Amino acid sequence: METVSTNRSFGGTQGVYSHASSRTGTRMTFAVYLPDHDKGAKLPVLWYLSGLTCSHANVMEKGEYRELASKLGLVVIAPDTSPRGQDVPDDSAYDMGQGAGFYVDATQEPWSEHFRMRSYIEQELPTLIAEQFPVDMNRQGIFGHSMGGHGALTIALRNPERYRSVSAFAPIVAPSQCPWGKKALGRYLGEHKAAWRDYDACSLVEDGARFPEILVDQGAADDFLEEQLMPQLLVDACAKAEIPLTLNMREGYDHSYFFISTFMNDHLRWHADRL
Amino acid sequence: METVSTNRSFGGTQGVYSHASSRTGTRMTFAVYLPDHDKGAKLPVLWYLSGLTCSHANVMEKGEYRELASKLGLVVIAPDTSPRGQDVPDDSAYDMGQGAGFYVDATQEPWSEHFRMRSYIEQELPTLIAEQFPVDMNRQGIFGHSMGGHGALTIALRNPERYRSVSAFAPIVAPSQCPWGKKALGRYLGEHKAAWRDYDACSLVEDGARFPEILVDQGAADDFLEEQLMPQLLVDACAKAEIPLTLNMREGYDHSYFFISTFMNDHLRWHADRL
To answer: Smallest CA–CA separation between A54 and chain B, in Å?
Structure first.
């Protein structure tokens, strides 16, 4: 692991690091905010997964999480959203390829060699974090935005024993049923739709996945609400499965970090209460 | 005035606007955060001037001011740092030309036609803001970062009747005595140094300018501290002039928005208490 940068912020250290990933076969960059802490302390970990077009930097610059994370003693980790590089397949569209990994392990050419973000986030990066930072991996929570909300929900639903808390801002709750998801899952996983169910929060719940409770904040003025995000599908799936879901519809708020930052502290408190 | 964008954030509206400036002879862009307020209310105004290479967007994205500005009912305005455009003179260096207006009215060719940021910030933009937003122009404060800290200090010292409060993050307190300032003032104003004194906070204080009190936060790990910023010069000038100056040296903090955002709320409260 190589340190790209560290900056003192809100009584802690905002770091950016990179490492050679065996899962993606590329160099991967991620951000870690580490609050000041007593020597020997092990802090709980909160994973933030970002949305389409984002890298580790978007939430680090615009997320406004450091003040409260410092007070609560939460380590906040922001991975990249895909492998990147000249030798990595890409697509000219913003919603496919680099910056759009969709937190899947791709099975289809040309994506399957590098686009292994599920394994990277679920396995490789946690191992590295546990080795390199003063963290208590028995206290992990996960959240994210849009495509990253999809990532957080699906990863938590597949690994309820590992994460104590999950939440999302404007998540893609049912990629199998929206244009972004159909395109990405179709190309990363192929058209055999049974393979998509592991990467669709609503399908996972229908298939028996459970989590103690879920928090979602959604802007009511989000341009992607009706066509791509469709939170009601998750409301319905959770109701049927008796999973307590809190969905806050936020009047006037859109899909941007102006929305996310506004409700960031609510989410940090949600996780801290459960970690 | 044209609305470029508005986003709901922290119970208010973060807007970006543009207008044809008669002072700079260019189209100028600026950001305004307007908290929700009662009908007919007139809110106090806080001007934030940015540093080298910045536009209106840097503090808007990374400054973390909206939560408390909303609670305090402060309108926060972030202008650009220079005129911009293909027909506007520029320099390949980051510290001269576009993005580096130094809040002066340039008198030297080729800068004097467009680089009139003093008039723009002191006269033209306040007139526009007063016309277009629900503001109380009898309650104005001003702050800024680095080159923008220089701007805030010099503008407040020249106009103590207009601004009730002034503060700065890592300001250039004596441009006449540092490389950034000598280069910019020399080229914008010419080598006759008497003309520089109006644009140097320490010189203004030496020449009799007064302000009730000044707040400065400065990172002790700021790479520009010794060569460019030299806050002790302002400490000395203010001591001689009996201007109360609070200088907080912040151990470990650098020149970035990771530093600024950490102490943003302290500065918002400083201004709100005086507005």
So the answer is: 15
